[in-house]
Structures are given as C-alpha cells and as structure tokens.
Amino acid sequence: MAVDYKAPIKDIVFGYEVIDSYNILNKISLFKDFSENIVITTMEECAKFAEGVLAPINSIGDQIGAVINDGVVTMPAGYKEAYNKFKEAGWASISLPQEIGGGGMPIALSGGTLEILSSANLAFGLSAGAISAINFHGSDEQKSKFLPKLVSGEWTGTMNLSEPQAGSDLGTIKTKAELAENGSYKITGTKVWITFGDHDMTENIIHLVLAKLPGSPEGTKGISMFIVPKILINDDGTLGDKNNVQCLSIEEKLGIHASPTCVMEYDGAIGYLVGEENRGLHYMFTMMNEARIWVGGQGLASASAAVQGAAQYARDRVQGRPVGMSKEDAKNASIIEHADVRRMLLTIKSYVDAMRYLMFDNQLMLDLEYFGEDEVTKSLGEERCAILTPITKAWLSDLGVELSSLAIQVYGGMGYVEETGIAQYLRDARIAPIYEGTNGIQALDLMFRKLPLDNGQAMQRLLGEVTNQIELMKNGSDLMVSLAKELEIHVSKLSEVTMWLATKMLDGQLVDASAAATPYLKMFGQVLGGYYMGKAAVLAEKKLKDGDNEFYSDKLTICKFYIQQLLPIASGYASAITAGKEDLFNIKAENF
Ligand SMILES: Cc1cc2nc3c(=O)[nH]c(=O)nc-3n(C[C@H](O)[C@H](O)[C@H](O)COP(=O)(O)OP(=O)(O)OC[C@H]3O[C@@H](n4cnc5c(N)ncnc54)[C@H](O)[C@@H]3O)c2cc1C
Q: Using one digit for the tens of pLDDT, what is the confidence trace for 88-140?
C-alpha cells in the first residue's frame, strides 16, 4: 500500500509565479520565450514519467536495493528500464546548455522536475556534477570526448571526493596521481561512499576523482581533479579496455537502498587532469551551488510526497470522536476531523510551499549568475546565490527529515510499520542533511563566508529586499497589513542578531560565532520562508479578486498559517545565537 504519488503541478506552477520567474528570465535573451505554458507542459510530461515509471519501483528499490556480486553492482528490477526511459525523455539534461546537447531551459525549471522526480523516487537521483565540471573546466578535447554521452545519458558520472579519513575536511585526502605516458596520469587510492560508483544501467561510468600530485602543497591547496573512465575510450570514440578501477563493496544503509553507495578502488587507473594542477577543490566549489540546491530539493521532495500519503491516510482512517462533534456524526469521522491532525498536515503543507519558493528562487539566482547579460544582473545572481545556497541545502534537508517524521505521526502505528510505505520517506530523506557538505558545514559557510560578503552589505541588501516586501504588504488589505507586521518583528530580530554576530566576528570571537552557526541558519531559513509566504499571499489575494477559487483561498490560508503560527519560531532561535560558546564548552568531552 505505497503512497499514491500525484505530482502537485498546480502548486509548482504557482511557485514559479510567486518568484516572478517569467518577468525576470524573459530579460535574458536565452530565456526570452520562457513562459507558464512551458512550465505546465514540462511538469505534465514529467509527472507522467514520475507517476507511471519511477513511483511504482520506489518500494521495490527500497526492499531489494542494489546488490553486488563479484565486483559487479546490479540495480533492482525495473531500474534499468526506468533509466532508459529517463534518458530517452532527456530529463537529466533539460537545463543543460543547448550547445552541449542539453534542453537549454533555465536551471530554475529543473526545480519543478527535480521535485517531481525525487518525490516519486529519491534513490533514483544521479548527479550531473561531472557534466558541469567537465563543461566548465575541461579542455576542448575532454569536452568532445566525454560530454555528448554524459549529456545524452548513455554514460553516467560520479563525484569521488570522500575517503575514510577525509569527509568534511578534504584537505586530508591521500589518493595519489602520478604522471604517466601521453600526458595521462595513474590514479591510486580508495574512495568511499561514492553514489552510483558502479551500476548496470549504462555501458560506461565517468568518475571525477580528487587526488594529489607528488610535491603538491599540503591541504586543500594541493588537490587536483581527474577524469577516470570505468572503460577507457579509444581515439575513435569506441569503448576500449577496462580501466583499473573497481567497486569493492556497497554500503548497507538506512535509506535510498536503490542508490548504490560504493567503496571504489583505483589501482593505477588511467586518469586525465581537468584544468590546472592543484585547482581541483576550486573547480568543485564552482559547481557546488547547483549540487547543494539539488540536495535541499531532496528535502522538499520527501516532505511534498509524504504529506500526500499522510493526507490520504487521514481522510480514510476512522478513529476517535472529534471535539465538538455529535456521537452520531463521529461514527464515521476520520482522523482528519481532529484539530491536532489538521495541525500536522497544515504544518507540512505550509513548510513545503515555503521550501519550494526558496529553492526555485535560489535556482533563478543561479540563472542570473550564469546567464545574466550585464554585470549588475550577474553580480546580483552571484551574491544572492552565495547567501541562499547554504540555507536551501540545510534548512530544506533538515525540514525534509522533520516533516517526513511528522507525516509518520499522522499515520499513528501504521506509520511505523513498513507496509504503508510512509517510513521510507523518512529513511530516504535522512541522507540529505549529511551529504554534499553536512548541514553543520553549511551553517559555518553562511556564518564565516557569506555573512561577511562585501563587508556585510550583501546580507543587508537581502534583508532590505525582505523589508521592501513588508512595505508593499503594508499598503494592502487588513490581512496583508497584519501579516506584514508579524513578518517585520522577525526580520528586525534577524537583523539584530546579524549585527551582533558581525560585531563578534570583528572582535575576533570566532568560537562564539561558530557556536551560533546552526541556530542562525535555521532562523534565516524560517524568516526567508516568511518572506516568500508574504509574496505568495499577495499573489493569492490578487488572484482571488479575479474570481473565487478554492486553490487560491487555500494558498492564502497556508500563507497566513505559516506567518502567524510557524514564523514566530524564528525569533526563538535568537537566544541560542547570542548565548555564545560558554555552555557548549563547559562540559568536558568525556562527560557527554
Ligand atoms: C549515502 C551517501 C552518499 C554519498 N555520496 C558521496 C559521493 O557521491 N561522493 C563523495 O565524494 N562523497 C559522498 N558521500 C560522503 C559525504 O559527502 C560525507 O559523508 C560528508 O561529506 C560528511 O563527511 P563524513 O561522513 O566524513 O563526516 P565528518 O566530516 O566526520 O563529520 C561528522 C560530524 O562532524 C561535523 N563536523 C566535521 N567537521 C566539522 C567542522 N569543521 N565544524 C563543525 N562540525 C564539523 C559534521 O557536520 C558532522 O556532523 C556520501 C555519503 C553517504 C552516506
């Protein structure tokens, strides 16, 4: 009895309007024709594939998982066929540039497709990081050799950063690269936790591997990036010999069982240097925004699918007499009539909307950064993206876990047993706060790299935009004025703690700032959620004036609920932010 997933197309389409994507993107010549029509048709097609192909194999993937025998990884039944359809439909490359064979759509459009595909099957997520890395930093020869088949999906790519002793701190990697014949390199070392490091869905896999050259500088400044194909490619483009790379084992893990997490051994494997020596980590950072937003999107996708299951269950399950209902009426009353169950459902639904708007806007800013045609647009995109990305990654992925757990609560005992399928969402969602830089690392990124951007002016400009939204709402209906006032309370508090943190950092009290990092990121996420909900409320109210419509009146209720009942959590983080390091370090390590 798995969750009967239906892509929330109307909500997604509304999301693109909330962030004003058409007006903003149409100013870029590449996207001058981007329209609501394109969004609707894309999402409808994506929904057909996700609902009809990916969702039906979601629980098989969970129960059977990928398996390894004699070093060969085999995907669960149905995955290879699903991958072929995914490849043929071009879902992997919809937002890649046309000149490399992609669909040429804005990155923002992939937010909606990502949500739908990941809601249907989170484990199916293959990273496009290798494509971006080669496209941005590879030589012309490397681009023509590897990109066409990666973009078409004939081959898949992996990212090989982690080693047993090098997770968050990649400066400690030990994998070695030595110059070999014809300008190629020999790569030797062990990489761990490599997503789709091996599988049987494509004939070749292109690994991007971080390694150190002899005599390279210590730490992160001495890391280079290499392309290491599973099967070597002959000069005429045909597949040649097998390279010396092997999947040694795959991990038994909490969730995403259909996504093989591989220990990879490189034993003098032939690799090709990407770009310049010792610039590998810098190259990784240039692609991190995309990948991190994508992982935040996995949190959104989990919660978005889980609430559908929870709402369906709540409509069906008859239990208990709702307060205020007659005994007679209560005979067939389902649990959705209980205020507490409604609170749980509305909490998930409201967060899901806020998460979606933030993710779409973050991707829109990436479009401005990459494709903007003047310096002002490009630097706005770059600045916004820098601040929003750690928040999208961490706030959304943490919420994905919390909200999937809340969805289980709606089911009661049936949520805890595997039969209903709802528990899978929580297990699958649990990886997102960990990989692509743990959420603790995201919080430090926000604090130490993003807060000081342009001497704090970048942060002030973003908060200024939130304030402009508040002023706009103050000129609206009574409801908008009251929502604006609520939002103003928490934005002021956020500005206050931001100033406090900036002062601490200027005084060199960095441990206090590091102690505040996670509550600060959570507060920021909660406030930004309020900002987007303010925008959504204005839009929904405007749409309602054009005629009564349940969809928009529901949207208005959702915005009101978020701003009045969820947003106030934001200011609650302030005391943890300004408490400093003292309590955290008062207890000896052995006493924890
Ligand atoms: C299912 C799965 C798939 C993965 N896929 C890939 C992949 O495809 N490619 C790849 O290269 N890697 C992959 N990884 C690895 C993943 O990126 C790492 O697990 C992650 O970066 C964290 O590293 P770690 O596990 O060593 O944890 P650690 O770095 O040991 O961190 C442990 C804890 O300490 C905290 N911590 C560490 N350093 C600091 C610090 N400086 N300040 C504050 N807190 C800190 C962390 O936030 C975390 O809470 C995958 C992992 C999993 C589980």
A: 999 988 999 999 999 999 999 999 999 999 999 999 988 888 999 999 999 99
Within 412-477, where are the H helices?
Answer: 413-416, 422-429, 439-445, 457-474
Q: Do residues 240 and 145 lie in contact, with contact meaning Cβ atoms separated by under 8 Å?
A: no
Cβ–ligand 1 distance for 159 under 6 Å, the answer yes
CB 535 within 8 A of CB 469: yes
Contact between residue 177 and residue 205 where contact means Cβ atoms under 8 Å apart: no
Distance CA 534, CA 201 (A): 44
**Helix 510-545 and helix 478-506: axis angle, to 10°?**
160
Amino acid residing at 540: A
pLDDT in tens, 398-413: 999 999 999 999 999 9
Residue holding tokens 């490009």? 378
Task: Give the closest residue (by CA) to ligand 1 atom 26.
Answer: 167
130, 158 contact by CB (below 8 A)? yes
pLDDT tens-place string over residues 297-332? 999 999 999 999 999 999 999 999 999 999 998 889
Q: What is the mean pLDDT of residues 473-498?
A: 98
Question: How far does the chain reach from its first CA to its final CA, in angstroms?
Answer: 42
Q: 185-195 and 176-179 as β-strands: parallel, antiparallel, unpaired?
A: antiparallel
Tell me the DSSP string of 204-267: EEEEEEEEB-TTPPSGGGG-EEEEEESEEE-TTS-EEEEPSEEEEEE---SS-TTS-EEEEEEE
Say yes or no: CB of residue 440 within 6 Å of ligand 1.
Answer: yes
CA of 349 to the centre of ligand 1 (A): 30
Mean pLDDT score, 222-230: 98
CB of 42 closer than 6 A to ligand 1? no
What does the alpha-carbon distance between residue 271 and residue 276 come to, in Å, rounded to a whole number? 14
Instruction: Give the DSSP letter string of 358-420.
Output: HHHHHHHHHHHHHH-SSHHHHHHHHHHHHHHHHHHHHHHHHHHHHHHHHHHHHHTHHHHSGGG
| pTM listed for this prediction | 0.97
Residues 265, 277: Cα–Cα separation, whole Å: 22
The protein residue whose alpha carbon is closest to atom 2 in ligand 1 is 193
Q: How far apart are CA 421 and CA 335, in angstroms?
A: 19
For residue 1, is pLDDT > 80? no
For a ligand 1 pocket test, name from 156, 168, 198 the mutation site with the most ligand atoms within 8 angstroms of its C-beta.
168
Catalytic residue among 290, 369, 382, 436: 436
**Ligand 1 binding pocket includes 170 (Cβ within 6 Å):** no
Q: Which atom of ligand 1 is nearest to the CA of 166?
A: 26
Considering all CA atoms of the chain, what is the largest pairwise distance in Å, rounded to the nearest integer?
85
Contacts of 575 (CB under 8 A, 6+ apart): none
Rounded distance from Cα 515 to ligand 1 centre (Å)? 19
Distance of CA 19 to the CA centre of its chain: 18
Q: Is 436 a catalytic residue?
A: yes
Please report the domains of the chain, with CATH numbers, ordered by start residue: 9-124 (1.10.540.10), 129-145+153-279 (2.40.110.20), 447-592 (no CATH)
Q: Judge whether 429 and 298 are in contact, CB under 8 Å.
A: yes
